[in-house]
Amino acid sequence: MEKLTVQEEDAMRGIWKIGPCVLRDLLAIYPDPKPPYTTLASIVKNLERKKYVRSQRVGNVHLYHALVQPGDYKRAFMSGIVSNLFGNSYKELVSFFAKEEKISTDDLKEIISMIERENTEK
């Protein structure tokens, strides 16, 4: 899976949010200042080339469908970050955020509770 640029990730988030869409639908959910239509068209063409979306011609427009789900994208790139920057240790990742004060003790307790709940539901 090829890494996406920031602009490509923004477009993918929009497609994931609204589902199959034409460019005008996607452009409509962008905050101001919106990118030019032609710029968004190029971004989505790149997503198609990278096999993140596929297009289907409907009349005189293209309908774009996501081929990659958000969870799959997150998994692919988070595991790369953990591997490359944290020696393949998720404990090191969490420790880093705790030391940088990006995550609190209460957040960690809540995460542990969520994990425990998920494990008991299995």
TrEMBL record:
Please provide an example of a Pfam family that matches this protein in its UniProt record: Penicillinase_R
Gene source species: Candidatus Parabacteroides intestinigallinarum
Keywords associated with the record: DNA-binding, Transcription, Transcription regulation
Q: Which GO terms describe its biological process?
A: negative regulation of DNA-templated transcription
This entry's Gene Ontology molecular function terms read: DNA binding
Q: InterPro entries attached here? A: BlaI_family, WH-like_DNA-bd_sf, WH_DNA-bd_sf
Similarity-based family:
Belongs to the BlaI transcriptional regulatory family.
According to UniProt, the name of this protein is BlaI/MecI/CopY family transcriptional regulator
